[in-house]
Design goal:
The structure holds two protein chains of two kinds. Chain A is mainly α. Helices cover about 75% and strands about 0% of the residues of chain A. In chain A, strands 1-2 form a two-stranded antiparallel ribbon. The chains are: A mainly alpha, B mainly alpha. At the A-B interface, helix 1, helix 3, helix 4, helix 5 and helix 7 of A face helix 1, helix 4, helix 5, helix 6 and helix 7 of B.
Chain lengths: ~300, ~280
Amino acid sequence: MTEVFRKKKRYFILLFLAGGFIIYTTFLVAPILHSMFYSLFGGPGIVPKEFVGFQNYIQLFTQNPFKERFFGAFGNTIKFFLIVTFFQNVIGFFIAVLVTRRFVGSTFFRRIAFLPTTLSVLVAGFLFTLILNPIWGIFDKFLEVIGLGFLVRPWLGTPSIALVVIAIVTSWQYLGTSIIFYTAGIDAIDSEVLEAAKIDGAGLLAEVRYIIFPSILPIVGIVTILIFIGDFTQFDIVYAMASPYASPRYGTDLFGSLFYRAAFFPIGRGGWGMGMGATVAAIIFFIVTIGVLLLLFAFRMKGIGRKGEGID
Amino acid sequence: MIKFKNGTVRTLLYVILIIYSMSIFYPIFLMIITSLKENREIFTRPYSLPQSFNLDSYIHLFKISNYLIYFRNSIIITLTSLLIILALSSLISYVLAKYRFIGSRFLYFYFIAGLIIPIKLGTIGIIRIMLGLHIFDTLAALIIVYTAMGIPFGVFILTDFIRLIPEELSNSARIDGCSEPIIFFRIILPLIRPALAAVAIINFIPIWNDFWFPLLLIRTDNVKTIPLATALLYGQYETNFGLIFSVLTAASLPVIIFYLIMSRQFIKGLSSGALKG
């Protein structure tokens, strides 16, 4: 290429990058850095002005109610994540293997699977709150009819059960996404490999164990990472099914709802002031980043790294 | 794909998939039929089909709220953000895929790092910037946040896609005297249409359904979006079952219908997203 092309290029490179760079930096990157910065400030008033160093962090980890709420939400978020991961990965994988078999209606099932994901989390949350409502009793009556009436209990009124219930509703909604991801992965497996396995006499289990699972392991990694990021900032489902106060008795409190109250509620009604709110955001960000890196490592995914190498 | 030969396995397969589909259909079906019942009927005959199609609760909903305005706002916000996401990320991706310059690799990492940054955690800063720019409590505030949120994925998908376009195409256009922007608009853009569709489809659902940002950035009634209105109406009329079910149905039905019409494109877009990762 000639020198003329090069000079022309520089000018357009800047122009092409500018808009996206400014919006992305200002409204995504800078606000995160802003939270980290403000986590070092405290004092009265809405906007913290007094530099307090790591005092917010120390308070958060050692003083009640901060400590109690923070570790409560941390534990709940981990449980929530584990339940959702189980449903979306294990059951999602199982259903994906089923729908990739050749049978009448396979396409139909795939399309249906994604349907709940198109609803908002809020709608799904409200809908299941109503279905589980003991006054209307539609779910409880159903259990009685099929002879499981002894199971009936205040689904959203018992802390240990409520968390499991909201995790199941979340899984109900997003199971379709993992099914679509896994079926895409399974469909991409070379059919000759599968045919060869069949000729060698491999049964369904062996096929899953030695061919399907290893080939879609990177997709399992992506799904897990997406669930992880989503769950560690999940808020809507708690709002819809348990109110921002994560009833009963903070039993459904997740990082998302904790951050919401801490940063945006008035002090005395669950709010901790903006400095402490920023501290909570910074800690969650730190945990998410470490978690994603660990997951990338666990799934042996160079993922992002591998992509970038193609550029140079 | 392998064909099933064993009859019992096939039966089991159908049983599992039918139970699974029922668990998806029934709650949605229940939501729709309940919204068409009279309040008394909701409690006396909860499982059966409505005796008559009763639109009272919808009429009530449109009377007590500016529902059409919320709907319009959601459409404006979603379409505008999607258009800006596509425009900005295709421009960025073109530069990052086709030109090498100091920092180009770093820039690529910088943009796709956004894939793992939960933007919600920056909300305190976002509110302050919006107040500073005097766009707090406007549709523009939401559009700009969703744009920032959508760029990383756009760049991630489109850069890969543009890199696969052979350089000879652009070079022959250069020889014909085309400038770089013309090459981008005339040659690159038409070729990446499928990838643009995938980016739009994957971003559509989270933007349309987002509740967090309207909750924190919107105060005035005539700039509310459907999710925010859904939450507020639910809180206000929690005990009026007929009305609540019509609120939930009104919030979901347009997207459900849109999905049922476009499901092939949705699944294609999502699948290509999954395989790119």
